[in-house]
Amino acid sequence: MSNVAIVGATGAVGQEFLKILAERHFPVEELRLLATKRSAGKKVLWQGQELEVQETTHESFKGIDIALFAGGSASTEFAPSAVKSGAVVIDNSSAFRLDPEVPLVVPEVNPEDVKNHKGIIANPNCSTIIMAVAIKPIFDLAGIRRIVVSTYQAVSGAGREGIEELEAEVKAWSKGDEMTPAVFPYQIAFNLIPRIDVFQEGDYTKEEWKMVKETQKIFHAPDMAITATTVRVPIFRSHSESINVETEKLVSIAEIRESLCKAKGVIVDDDPSSDRYPMPWFSADTDEVYVGRLRKDFSIAQGLNMWVVGDQIRKGAATNAVQIAELLL
Amino acid sequence: MSNVAIVGATGAVGQEFLKILAERHFPVEELRLLATKRSAGKKVLWQGQELEVQETTHESFKGIDIALFAGGSASTEFAPSAVKSGAVVIDNSSAFRLDPEVPLVVPEVNPEDVKNHKGIIANPNCSTIIMAVAIKPIFDLAGIRRIVVSTYQAVSGAGREGIEELEAEVKAWSKGDEMTPAVFPYQIAFNLIPRIDVFQEGDYTKEEWKMVKETQKIFHAPDMAITATTVRVPIFRSHSESINVETEKLVSIAEIRESLCKAKGVIVDDDPSSDRYPMPWFSADTDEVYVGRLRKDFSIAQGLNMWVVGDQIRKGAATNAVQIAELLL
């Protein structure tokens, strides 16, 4: 049995941690809920116990075995203290992901990397996790030369405030009221915002670079060529991705389909004859990555297109982190 | 002065034809509004005249110089009669687009093809037009070897009924009522549907094949490799496209930017430092194609990514058709 802390326990990912620990019967001895001062004192019911949210401090981690960090600036501030206290940190922020000392893990792809941790294990970016699960069987079967990916990312990627902003904007629109964006730079209701996170090198956004560099690290494939365009869409919580893959070896779509059908964590939902393909509304609240619209790319010799959907808060964040914790047991 | 007929005058594209003919001061002598029996008798105010919608019949085109067909099954049924009556048909349906006898025209790309018509000129698919305008300067500057495109298409692509369905679903959701899709195969509010039009060869949709084959025809470039994934998004009327281009020649992004800035029909809206990029909400009701997020694709030697937005009903349909009509004058 482990003593587990959740840092950021009142946010969208933090709340999902609570649900997933219970659902997966994670062997929790003590569950300590930590958040900012503003949320301290809130009561949360979990598995029949009433737990009080405490303010995160450098002393919060005494006796904790596993600290799940939901993301944000708390990671840089408190993860080192958690490690010093003897906890293993599983961190959902981007702070440590590209640190060569920190394993970056998707359990379906590189579970063995967990062993190399020095106190911190990073949970990848949500879009990266979802893509990694879907491309892993193809990587194993045929190798991957190049990926061109365009994303359709839900507002949940901006946390609970993102979800509330889309709700508020749509309700304002329904009443003919004005919409006043605060979380997103522009109105997101009935709109698309082709910029997620800050702009960086080469006019790519940080989100786009995460999909490139994190994927290369997870697969230990620094030469896997990847280019990404990441877009916020007015969807509540599942991310979708249009992924074009050029493989190293020539394989048939039938072989790829078979490898996807057998893969852990993947559900192939792909039947044109009965109009089946993955859609975000119908994949919310699930842990699998859905793959559909699988087809040969006729524009190159060894290419394929696919459409991939996964719940951003669950497999894209909380579930993946708890799966990492399970690997530690 | 020309006698102009609009077939499908009461639909979303038909209504836009009326607006655009007036806005562009098209030299109209008589304007004849045609539609299905259901809409016959409706009165429409245009340029101070009250016009009555008539049922389309094979005799509807006497004395008509230019017949603008908004799309749908009326084209196959009545376009031949219109041609027989001496009219030039500009057809927004997909019926004749790939017919080698029928020019398929985007005025910014291949205006000269208009001359070869034998009575019918086809207006391309909306997503195709928007992409064609954006890639034309790149095609001229550097040649295009391959395109990987993923679309984010508005509900207006399914006509007025599509717009009304999204409105109705969102209003139902706001009140906690159930949503009942009829136009689209599944709920579109807060959802993405990665299937537009019917499935065809290779498990591609007809919409995806249109983007491939129509683009190759417009550019007279049967070897330009194109692969497309087309997706319906809960946006009212502008289509967006994430376009990855591999060029034939090596050119810099600065050169491409310059060619786009000079191009007819293109507005470059691209400034990361002031958070500027094209968005569908802000491009509705305009005739230009907006290009942003222009950047080098580091995954190949001669690649670029860009984000392109255009009003599906205007440049993607009605404006392009009226521009073709202007070429005929």
Low-confidence runs of chain A (pLDDT<50, min 5 residues)?
Answer: none
Largest interface, C-beta within 8 A: A-B, 55 and 55 residues
- Look at the structure and name the CATH superfamily of the largest domain in chain A: Dihydrodipicolinate Reductase, domain 2
Please state roughly what percent of the residues of chain A sit in beta strands, choosing from under 5%, 5-15%, 15-25%, 25-35%, 35-45% or over 45%: 15-25%
Examine the secondary-structure arrangement and name the CATH architecture of the largest domain in chain A: 2-Layer Sandwich
Overall pLDDT of chain A: 97
Count of helix runs of chain A: 7
Largest sheet geometry of chain A: 6 strands, parallel
Radius of gyration of chain A, Cα only, in angstroms?
A: 20 Å
Task: Output the helix-strand order of chain A.
Answer: EHEEEEEHEEHEHHEEHEEEH
DSSP summary, beta strand count of chain A: 14
In spatial order, strands of the major sheet of chain A run 5-2-1-6-7-8
Instruction: Give the overall shape of chain A, derived from the CA principal axes.
Output: globular
CATH class of the largest domain in chain A: Alpha Beta
Helix content of chain A: 25-40%
- Overall structural class of chain A, as computed from helix and strand content, comes to alpha/beta
Oligomer category = homodimer
CATH third-level topology of the largest domain in chain A: Dihydrodipicolinate Reductase, domain 2
In short:
The first copy, chain A, has 329 residues and is an alpha/beta fold.
